[in-house]
Amino acid sequence: MVEREGEGGPLIVIASNRGPFRFREKANGTFEVERGSGGLVTALGALAEDHEVLWVASAIGEGDRRWAETRTRQVEKIEGIYLQLLTPARPAYDQYYNVIANPLLWFIQHQLWDIPRAPSITRETWQAWEEGYVAVNKLFADAIADRLDKASRPVIVFPQDYQLYLLPRFLRERLGARVQIQPFIHIPWPGPDAWRILPHIIRDDILSSLLAADRVGFQTKRDAFNFVQTCRFYLPDAHSRGSRESIHIGGREVGARAYPISVDVDKVLALTEEPQTELLKSQLINTIGDHQLILRVDRIEPSKNILRGLRAYQTLLQDYPEHRGRVVMVALLVPSRMEVEQYQDYLREIMAEAGLINAEYSERFWEPVRVVVGDDYHRAIAAMELYDVLLVNPLADGMNLVAKEGVLVNQRNGVLILSENAGAFYELGDQALTVSPFDIHGTVEAMHHALTLSHDERRQRAAILHDKVRRAGVKQWFSAQVEDAIRALQADTGTRADTAAAGRG
Ligand code: ADQ
401-409 and 455-471 helices cross at what angle (nearest 10)? Predict the structure, then answer.
């Protein structure tokens, strides 16, 4: 890696809060390694096959911390990836993660506030900003810069997501212009108004740090454009000069590009063949019987809009009684951020809503809705193979990989109902039935339409969606970013060579 500098292409550094592996210490002091789940890890898992990668992440659980503490060298190669885990002090990590990143930034970017009540920026928030968010971002920057200080080969750093907004600035301060820095933001970037909630010092720190990067990656053009608008609006020195995808500041041009993320196509398809998936699939077939299946697969997360989805289903049963006894809704839900009170409340409300629907409409041999709580990716894929309707109705979502996984593996010409506020809308909206996530009536109509669509139309739509996702998987997503960074590196080297030649001449 850094030791083999000078060889091959550029060194690629990924920085993310959550790393690609989880560690569990066994009784004999060795470690069990488990490949993590979740959008980001799934998305980046494929990349080490083609590139030399150093991945710097936080140690999350106790096993991770023990693993990091017991390394004699800080970096170790696992499944082709050089991994370094950082161990921020627990209080700092807590402030960075549980006070600033989630909920504050997550809530602002998904616009989830109940404004008269929340958020309140208190002294504790400011303290969490300084001692948590700033400190942990600095820790990441120092760890990366220490490792790259002496590297002469080209380096591209890809900071991931809203936990690491300050990394570009700190890295630039330590490493100067010789590294390409290209953050990718997985969640929506709302327009200028949403950012009013942050005190200007915090907001300007975030924006100017991102503008220390060479280009910033977003899920959609809409997010990129919103970023350009936000920078222009709040930073007096930032100008777009009529462009929707770049900002000029301090004599530099910073790109704002859309790189829509996708799934690891081969891996997801291979998963459908695994015996475990086949077994779960046959169990699900028994449960569903000959009912039509409306499926949703989500983290238990207010932005996923699970409650309105249930209310729409209840209204469907009420307004279109012909579906009673003929349809079932299955909600596969993974617990997420359960230490946060609002998330616990959200789960309670979901269970209560589902209970009410079953209480009102159940018949002797028919239960209208089943909520299955737990993290089982094989089961999620098995269920996606079987849906007649996949409901993806988030209030806001960077992309939503479930929509892509669903249309890739489904075997029943299922119909996708898709929120116009999911990033996936821009790629899949044409062949989906699209809804406003707030519009329960519209969602009911979309469900009824999906359940009654002709076989031919279902087949046509499903085939086009399947092909779209099949052709643009996660490898393309990542290589597009790497190619842009390499092109910029080459242009830089060219400029430096020209300048040197001009100097000699
Ligand atoms: P998430 O908000 O986690 O990701 P999503 O893109 O849908 O949302 O990815 C979730 C992943 O977890 C999918 O692979 C899905 O199959 C899996 N999953 C969800 N529920 C599950 C269940 N009940 N059981 C098993 N597996 C389940 C964030 C952003 C998204 C963005 C991704 C990637 O919020 O907008 O698409 O990162 O950038």
Answer: 120
Hey, CA dihedral for 395, 397, 402, 406, is it positive or negative?
positive
Q: Which residues contact 99 (CB under 8 A, 6 or more apart)?
A: 124, 125, 128, 132
Confirm or reject: Cβ of 409 under 6 Å from ligand 1.
Answer: no
Residue 223 Cβ inside 6 Å of ligand 1? The answer reads no
300 lines ligand 1 (CB under 6 A): no
Q: Dihedral sign, CA of 146, 64, 261, 304?
A: negative
Element (H, E) at 490: helix 474-504
Helix (H, G, I), strand (E, B) or coil at 163: helix
Q: At residue 36, does pLDDT exceed 80?
A: no
Name the strands in the sheet holding 389-392, side by side, starting at the edge strand that comes first in the sequence: 369-373, 327-334, 292-299, 389-392, 415-419, 433-435
Give distance in angstroms: CA of 164 to centre of ligand 1: 20
Q: How far apart are CA 323 and CA 389, in angstroms?
A: 13
- Judge if the beta carbon of residue 210 lies within 6 A of ligand 1: no
Q: Which two tokens stand for residue 224?
A: 């990129």
Angle between helix axes 275-288 and 377-386 (nearest 10 degrees) is 50
CA distance 161 to 166: 11
CA 265–ligand 1 middle distance (angstroms): 15
Report the nearest atom of ligand 1 relative to the CA of 397. 35
Query: Is 0.90 surpassed by the pTM of this model?
Result: yes
Atom of ligand 1 nearest to the CA of 333: 23
> Are the beta carbons of 157 and 144 closer than 8 angstroms?
yes
> Is 337's C-beta closer than 6 angstroms to any atom of ligand 1?
no
Mutate which of 402, 419, 477 for ligand 1 pocket (most atoms within 8 A of beta carbon): 402
In whole angstroms, what is the distance from residue 69 CA to residue 62 CA? Answer: 11
The Cα–Cα gap between 317 and 321 comes to 5
Among 375, 452, 439, 495, CA closest to 36: 375
Find the angle CA(272)-CA(275)-CA(280) to the nearest 5 degrees: 75
Atom nearest to 377 CA in ligand 1: 25
Instruction: Decide whether any atom of ligand 1 lies within 6 Å of the 188 Cβ.
Output: no
Predicted confidence band of residue 4 (pLDDT cuts 50, 70, 90): very low
Does the CB atom of residue 43 touch ligand 1 within 6 A?
Answer: yes
pLDDT for 78-125, tens place per residue? 888 899 999 999 999 999 999 999 999 999 999 998 889 999 999 999
Query: Distance, CA 151 to ligand 1 centroid (Å)?
Result: 36
What secondary structure, in 3-state letters, does 189-200 show?
A: CCCHHHHHHCCH
DSSP 193-229: GGGGGS-HHHHHHHHHHHTTSSEEEESSHHHHHHHHH
